[in-house]
Design brief:
By secondary structure, the chain is an alpha+beta fold. Helices cover 28% and strands 23% of the residues. The chain has helices at residues 16-26, 54-58, 79-88, 115-133, 160-163, and strands at 7-13, 35-43, 65-72, 97-98, 101-102, 108-112, 143-146, 150-152. The strands form 2 sheets. It has a 6-stranded mixed sheet, with helices on one face. Strands 4-5 form a two-stranded antiparallel ribbon. Helix 3 packs parallel to helix 4. The chain is globular.
Length: 177
């Protein structure tokens, strides 16, 4: 690490396996590109849905999103760069869906941790909308909401596609520009 005080970024962009995988592919911790570590888990759901498990989240009854929690060094990679990358790696114009994955757990969301992150997320969203989606006649539907309680997903989900390279990966999880 380069010495900055670590910050947290939390994103939901469909199946968390692919989201974590592509962030780590382009920002590998071993290469000091800013991401220190990641975890996949659940957040953003109903207040009474505490400590959910994968099966329960998949029913849609918790309203939790599958998300990636990223600890990063802002002296190496800025939050706005991570937000812009988040938009590059999925389709933020589909509500509760990425590819064939459908349900509230697959929604596009930015869970901000500070007022500064909120402002940055709004600004970058506007910039990405104008540059990449206005010309296509599409609207970003990404939720920008306060980060709430976080629960790590079960161990077998952590870095799943590194442990299972031929495992399922949503075709939307790629660089779109």
């Amino acid at each position: 690490m380069s010495g900055g005080t670590p910050e947290i970024a939390t994103f939901a962009a469909g199946c968390f396996w692919g989201v974590e995988h592509i962030f780590l592919k382009y920002f590998p911790p071993a290469e000091n590109k800013g991401i220190i570590k990641t975890a996949v888990g659940y957040t953003g759901g109903k207040e009474d849905s505490k400590n959910p498990d994968y099966r329960t989240v998949c029913t849609g009854s918790t309203n939790h999103a599958e998300a990636v929690r990223i600890e990063f060094d802002p002296s190496v990679v800025k939050y706005d760069e991570l937000v812009e990358f988040f938009y590059r790696i999925h389709d933020p114009t589909t509500k509760n869906q990425q590819g064939n994955d459908v349900g509230t757990q697959y929604r596009s969301a930015i869970f901000y941790h500070t007022p500064e992150q909120l402002e940055i997320a709004k600004r970058v969203t506007e910039e990405v909308q104008k540059k990449h989606f206005d010309p296509k006649g599409k609207r970003i539907v990404t939720e920008i909401v306060p980060a709430g309680e976080w629960w790590d997903a079960e161990d077998y989900h952590q870095k799943y596609l590194f442990k299972n390279p031929t495992g399922y990966q949503c075709p939307n999880h790629r660089l779109h520009w």
